[in-house]
Amino acid sequence: MPVAEYHVEDKYTYQARHLRVVVIGAGISGIYMGIRIPQVLENIDLVIYEKNSGVSGTWFENKYPGCACDVPSHRYTYTFEPNPDWPSYYSDTDSIEKYYEGIAEKYQVLQYVRLNHAVTAAKWDEESANWKLSIDRPEGSFDDTCDVLINASGVLNKWKWPDIPGLNDFKGKLLHTAHYDRSVPLEGKRVAVIGSGSSGIQVVATIQKRVAHLGVYIRSPTWIVPPFNMDKAPRHPDGTPDYRYSEAERKRFREDPQYFAKHRMELEAGSTRLFQLLVKGTAYQELIRETLTRNMSAILDARPGLAEKMIPKFAVGCRRITPGTGFLEALVKDNVEPIFGNIDRFTEKGIVSEDGTEVDYDVIICATGFDVSFGARFPFVGRDGRQMDHAYAEDPKSYLSLAIGGFPNHFIFNGPSSPIGNGSVVPAIETEGEYMIQCIRKIQTEDIKTMCIKDEAVEEFVCHVDTYMPRMVWTDNCRSWYKNGKVNGRVTALWPGSAYNFIKVITTPRYEDYNYTYTNPLSRFSFLGTGKSKEEVESDDISGYLETRMVLTDGHPALKLLAAATL
């Protein structure tokens, strides 16, 4: 390259260029980015598009009877915003929504959020090196662009009706747990609940006493476990678990930070230790299996033959482990009819099972979950026409769950191979956010035009994941969304290790796994500018490096930070 063609740009070294960053979704991940990006990055134009009329994501949407988080409340908060006033050991949806709404208000995140704005298309433009977006809002659609696109929409955001004939023939009230109408009365009604996943379990346990008859349609057996970490829960005087924190306990949390921190850390450590349960063939796995079989049988044997149908043959943890307080007890009540197998069709009056039996209902509640594939919910086109479409959803691959091959300047929260079933998800989300912020800073300060994960990095990571997974119970013979809804197949959803391990791995980005282009095509070193630092240009603090000095450590030179007073 002839030197004459290159020129030195008039700026200080590592000067942050202006970037527009768009975040899709204002749930836990999106709110976090709305807090941290303004705190630690400069010269950023940030917008968060949220399709709903409020923030908090899945907790804004899910309002079905009994809806609650099956993670202890004090593990389901931002690490920097503990909440001593959680009313219960496990919190309901309204309490969680209130917490995250409050955080968004406290940190002034709402100024960046555009409610009722749904991203409907995203396409990478190579010439301008930005994303072209289409946005729908109540007053009409419009186009937008951004330099960096962050998908924080999560996997629990596109609910689905069951794929059963006659869905629209039913003349009673048809509800879905993810779009629930709380105004519909259930008292004294004949009600069906379709599904025995997390939402179905909570609905059945909650409404059983209120309804005249409850049909529970169960396609597959499932392990029902006691609530997690109950050894750390508050206690009744007789020693049994109390699911509500007393005012005295909450007062101590508020006034004794060390006691409160110890409680939270014990819960977190307990969650991390549970990972050993998910390894095949261990003594712990067998012990848990025997214990759960005994506990479930003790309840289900009240109805002959029920335990045999309900207790799985596959390993504990092959499907998502589900705490189910009150669910098994409900199944043996006189007004409850567990119905196993597939549904043949809906009729005007009710449901016909595959054996031809028809049961009439006033209300049908579909606890049939979400489209949990990793395909985009809208046309999403990357470099060279790559698409995150149905074909991608059938065999999703990622780099450390954070980036997708062929999608420059794009990051994703909890993509394929993320720790969504491996331990605490909120600390993992925070660490993912910090990873993305480090990458945005690098793009800003090193004159990077595009940053795109190498295809070989994706393939080598996927090779490790696929080779690792046979040791885990997730590969056992069960139908699970961990395997994209298949009985057998790749484990596409989960991280190959514990959530703690995930946090350690992604804390420092491996920048060498990315390909780069630069705003100055003649040199990657244009960011050096005039050879002055920001401090030299903007302040008189130009001797801060004296706070470090060379010292000897075990005979080797090393830099050690020292207070200025010790120099």
Automatic annotation (TrEMBL):
GO terms for MF: flavin adenine dinucleotide binding; N,N-dimethylaniline monooxygenase activity; NADP binding
This protein's UniProt keywords: FAD, Flavoprotein, Oxidoreductase
Family matches, as InterPro entries: FAD-bind_Monooxygenase_sf, FAD/NAD-bd_sf, Flavin_mOase-like
Family indicated by similarity: Belongs to the FAD-binding monooxygenase family.
Descriptive protein name: FAD/NAD(P)-binding domain-containing protein
Keyword S-adenosyl-L-methionine: no
PANTHER family for the chain: L-ORNITHINE N(5)-MONOOXYGENASE-RELATED, MONOOXYGENASE
Repressor among keywords: no
